[in-house]
């Protein structure tokens, strides 16, 4: 920051730097300059910079304009018109330095004159108690969280009926963010809602990114299904471009960033010759003969890799298949096998896995639960079942390991949004990957009980 930049402090000051107290700013008389400054704000005026999450590449400063933010909120309103009749009430833990909370959630409250209660909790074993306490006090009308947070909340509501009834008392919409949610979790939330208020609460999903402000695709029609990301909102153009055996999603419209701050080369690389933003996300039509049904998420193009045989592995699709098969006990998996003979997987568990334990107390630590014979037997059964139903080596997972430690944000293994950074996990846990493929596997490595050899 330039040394002559003025700093604002609630208390104190910084020696050698121009500074002003906040209370002095608040008492500044209103002059015509305020109106002039307001008039000077145009759609292309920079509102802020937000850094990308760095899930696949180094973070970049995305230029967020006022036009992007306001267009994004209007697009959202036209997909969810109930907002016109009921100002939103949010109880939100998600961090403002990410586009989901900092742009969408915060902007939603501003755009509709709603209320935002800042939740100091988090979807962790230690942080969930604070979130539950807050939700007992304030009933949201829309609730945003990552699937892991919704899983932990659902488990709490099964035994805490006061929490359940308060949570659903005026809820209009549930919105999982940051990662895919399993169908069994959706079913559990539906059951809890029906028991509490007599009806299911509409649940929606979407796809977006920091560069799209973030709302870009929306599954806001009835009959929610896992993996469905829907259709573009009004005002946004989307095209699908072949990239190998996948289709890349590309965007163009008033809610798309103008570029990365002071990085013209990266900006040029981000757009194609028709001005569409290249997202790196892949999708396919739910039904090629009924495209109005929208799109299904097909993973990140950059996540895919080849086995030693040269066979490509579709990481996104296979990951979703494993999570669905292991529901409701799997938080996420990381697929291994780049340039190796066969696939393997590292399994991150959800707290519900404690119900599988046969020799460990339910309140034992994550490491004890992961190593419990009952949990290991469940993982072995899952591995065998997946192998029996695989179609070729690109789907055949031959080995697995249940991880004893949860993903760590400090190491970049998990973003604040709750999604797993596959590359980071493979790097930070490289020793475990080597152990998974060791000639003499250790006690923590599960090998499929082979009944057949998969075809290439």
TrEMBL record:
The protein in question is named Feruloyl-CoA synthase
**Which UniProt keywords are present, listed alphabetically?**
ATP-binding, Nucleotide-binding
**Nucleotide-binding listed as a keyword:** yes
A molecular function (GO) held by this record is: ATP binding
Q: Where is the AMP-dependent synthetase/ligase domain?
A: 22-261
Task: Give the signal peptide as a residue range, or say none if absent.
Answer: none
- Annotated InterPro entries: AMP-dep_synth/lig_dom (IPR000873), ANL_N_sf (IPR042099)
- Its domain of life reads Bacteria
One term under GO cellular component? membrane
Q: Which Pfam families match?
A: AMP-binding, AMP-binding_C_3
